[in-house]
Amino acid sequence: MTDLTPLTPEAVTALFTRADGQFLFARWGRPIAPVVFGVTDGTVAVLKGAVEALCTLTGHTMAETDPELGANLMVFFVKDWSELTATPNLDRLIPSLADLVDRLQTGGANQYRIFRFDEAGAIQACFSFIRMDADLELVSADTLALNQMVQAMLLWSDRAFTDRSPLAMMEGRAILRPDIADLLRAAYDPVLPPMAQDASHALRLAARLGRVQ
Fold it and tell me: Are both 106 and 166 inside the same structural domain?
């Protein structure tokens, strides 16, 4: 069974409030043009399928290419973080790449995302890094893809899903939690701004939950 109860305004606020207490919301402001590195063609198709499903859910769009970057959602799968420093030209896209790799190795992280933003504060690009450790090796491609793409669709808090996944299990397979699906739809309401730094934005999102179709 999945919980069909809409998120409370407080819960919505928490999903976009960072550990330092700052509220920051942002959604994509342009079509998403994904590219995936380090996995088989079959897994690439699964990941792109997850992006397509979330774009259909939210009313957002995908594109083959981005006019500025070529691809604006770049997903990198590695076995060890050191592989990132060996990736040609990645240091041109990610400033201080060596320092980032050191931090990821020291912290034992298995995933990390970097966002870039346009003049309006909307998401312009996302670089998603996944280290396939023993825990992630046990996760199916479908589940991993959906989980990663949900977290790339919005600028969530750095603590958003530490206690509870955005996914739920139904009949043995992972699906997007209905309350998170509702929130994603609300977040892409064209009436709302693509970026907000005031927590009152969470109230506007919460007011749309349960009635956004």
Answer: no
